[in-house]
């Protein structure tokens, strides 16, 4: 099987969005994806991109992605966040996820960050085992905290006199 790992291009965005939707379905949230191709283009391909995305490309078919961005840790300094590592269901188990993660880690080293971090659902045993096998420390004592758009509005409304 011949595929290459490379940075995403604007022409990849339709397929990239399809993989994002595929992940949402897998994670039992099929209606949660709000982002559009235009959003991805504006956020990832302007003069100051919000993210860097690597793709696994097999004959112009995008079969996997790894979307990353930098953030700042008060304890460590600059870190790289892996937002999503997605391999199309039909292509899992063929080394594509490993190749994408390898690229992310090499990218992190080139950036000189202190850490690479990401989340994994507690019920996704195969992903947890994959990450552990790669040497990742899966922290079971941390909870992910989100304040969604409605939560932000409610929060702010309570600040108003």
Give a written overview of the molecule.
Strands 1-2-3-4-5 form a 5-stranded mixed beta sheet. The mean pLDDT is about 95. The longest helix has 16 residues. The chain has a single domain, classed as Gcn5-related N-acetyltransferase (GNAT) (Aminopeptidase, 3-Layer(aba) Sandwich), CATH 3.40.630. The protein has 5 helices and 5 strands. By secondary structure, it is α+β, with helices and mostly antiparallel strands.
Q: What's the number of domains?
A: 1
**CATH level 1 name:** Alpha Beta
Shape: globular
Q: Return the string of H and E elements.
A: EHHEEEHEHH
Rounded to the nearest angstrom, the distance between the terminal CA atoms is: 62 Å
CATH homologous superfamily designation? Gcn5-related N-acetyltransferase (GNAT)
Alpha carbon gyration radius: 17 Å
Name the CATH architecture: 3-Layer(aba) Sandwich
Secondary structure tally, helices: 5
CATH topology name: Aminopeptidase
Helix and strand composition category = alpha+beta
Query: Roughly what percent helix?
Result: 25-40%
Q: Which consecutive residue ranges, at least 5 long each, have pLDDT under 50? A: none
Q: How big a fraction of the residues is strand?
A: 15-25%
Order of strands side by side in the largest beta sheet? 1-2-3-4-5
What average pLDDT do the residues reach? Answer: 95
Number of strands: 5
Biggest beta sheet summary: 5 strands, mixed
């Amino acid at each position: 099987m011949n595929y290459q790992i490379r940075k995403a291009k604007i022409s990849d965005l339709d397929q990239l969005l399809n993989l994002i939707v595929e992940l949402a379905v897998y994670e039992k949230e099929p209606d949660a994806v709000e982002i559009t191709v235009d959003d991805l283009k504006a956020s990832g391909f302007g003069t100051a991109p919000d993210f860097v995305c690597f793709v696994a490309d097999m004959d112009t078919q995008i079969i996997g992605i790894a979307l990353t961005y930098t953030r700042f840790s008060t304890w460590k300094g600059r870190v790289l966040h892996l937002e999503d590592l997605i391999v199309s269901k039909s292509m899992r188990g063929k080394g594509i996820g490993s190749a994408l993660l390898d690229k992310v880690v090499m990218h992190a080293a080139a950036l000189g960050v202190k850490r690479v971090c990401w989340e994994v659902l507690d019920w996704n045993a195969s992903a947890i085992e994959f990450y552990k096998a790669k040497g990742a420390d899966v922290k079971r004592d941390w909870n992910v905290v989100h304040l969604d758009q409605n939560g932000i509005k409610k929060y702010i409304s309570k600040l108003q006199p």
